[in-house]
Amino acid sequence: QKIYSNTETLADRDTYNALIVKYSNKAHILIACTELSILNHPTHVVDMAQLQITEALKQIKQH
Fold first, then answer.
1. How many CB atoms neighbour CB 28 within 10 A?
2. Which residues 6+ apart lie within 8 Å of 29 measured at CB?
3. What are the extents of the domains in the chain?
């Protein structure tokens, strides 16, 4: 909620990023939330919102 409303603190981002790093070391992570897509992610994170946006832009360019 804080990310969506743009009220997150640096500590909030650090906590979120620490969780992503912790769990991405054990398995791939799937993110399916546009608010969380705003933040940077390590390589073992699959960002569904980013994939959908990229595909939509490709389709728009084709028409």
1. 10
2. 20, 23, 41, 44, 45, 46
3. 10-62
pLDDT tens-digit map of 9-43 = 999 988 988 988 899 888 888 777 766 666 666 66
Q: For residue 50, how many other CB atoms are within 10 A of its CB?
A: 14
Report angle CA 47, 51, 18 to the nearest 5 degrees.
15
Measured between alpha carbons, how far is 14 from 23 in angstroms, rounded to an integer? 14
Q: What is the CA radius of gyration of the chain?
A: 14
Q: Which residues pair with 46 in a beta bridge?
A: 30
